[in-house]
């Protein structure tokens, strides 16, 4: 390619998503929910009128935004909906991280943050997690262009209590702090309750995990009306019709069914706690997961080899060949039966390797 053309191209190293094999496997690699979405979602899909697809969708996704506003007891002007939280987070980076000072996020965290920062040419620095994979909050008490971290963090699965989040917010009154709560429903309290007290706070959540709708692509941000307005201004300068009609209708149905949501989350948390016990029996070490996955390593066996072995058995987990975490596997919590099959395979591996 002509180098003069090359010089003018925005080059990026893209995010690498987890594999989505199309054959039937035990899929514990992308933190999806093993249970189907709420029954109302299926009903909404059945009732979809294909003739209406000739029309553009409602650009404000009002049905979905209203359902979320009612669920959380906030104003509709406090909610921003997007195509998965990836879309919402990408819009947040573009809107709120606009400073020559570095944005701060942990060295081990959701790897998309670095990609967006690079894509938008946002300077960033990555304070190191401590030995126990905990965020060192004091690292965020310095001048910066904004802060983002997931709580619970991923892929470490570590959750920090709200007073910890509040300390970071209180030390950063002059920048926007984004708390990515993709996994909070499996953990504890959400930072949503801090929104009235901290004008710099944006909370981002998703329908992909606890609401079993990764395939529908729905995420949202909750904040004060002023920040949500800035976010909408950027969105409408980019693509007004992000949310399609079907996502809006199905998303609204999912939010209304609190009972189903609570039941499936409870089942996953129970399976997770049982799985921790099983992993321990096999000699694995892991952080005290508060998510729908466990981040584990075995002191005697190489994680890369274990990953390949499981894959050959059609059990997909996630492994990164990167500094500090290459001996870890991230294992999504599936159904009890899927986890039994994982443990069966792990036991066979450990037995034969001895
Ligand atoms: N944040 C974190 C921490 C995640 O792990 C994920 C899932 N890959 C996302 C955001 C994005 O999820 P989605 O776009 O499906 O809402």
Verbal overview:
The structure is a single chain. Helices cover 37% and strands 12% of the residues. It is α/β, with parallel strands linked by helices and 354 residues long. The protein has two domains: 128 residues, Aspartate Aminotransferase, domain 1, CATH 3.90.1150; 219 residues, Type I PLP-dependent aspartate aminotransferase-like (Major domain) (Aspartate Aminotransferase, domain 2, 3-Layer(aba) Sandwich). It has a seven-stranded mixed β-sheet, with helices on both faces. Strands 9-10-12 form a three-stranded antiparallel β-sheet. The chain has a two-stranded parallel sheet with strand order 1-11. The site of 4'-deoxy-4'-aminopyridoxal-5'-phosphate has 12 residues, from helix 4.
| Ligand types | 4'-deoxy-4'-aminopyridoxal-5'-phosphate
Share of residues in helices: 25-40%
- The CATH topology of the largest domain corresponds to Aspartate Aminotransferase, domain 2
Q: State Rg.
A: 21 Å
Give me the number of helical elements.
11
Instruction: Name the poorly predicted regions.
Output: none
The CATH architecture assignment of the largest domain turns out to be: 3-Layer(aba) Sandwich
Order of helices and strands: HEHHEHEHEEHEEEHHHEEHEEH
Q: Total number of β-strand segments?
A: 12
> Beta-sheet strand percentage?
5-15%
Distance between the termini: 53 Å
* Biggest beta sheet attributes: 7 strands, mixed
* Envelope shape: globular
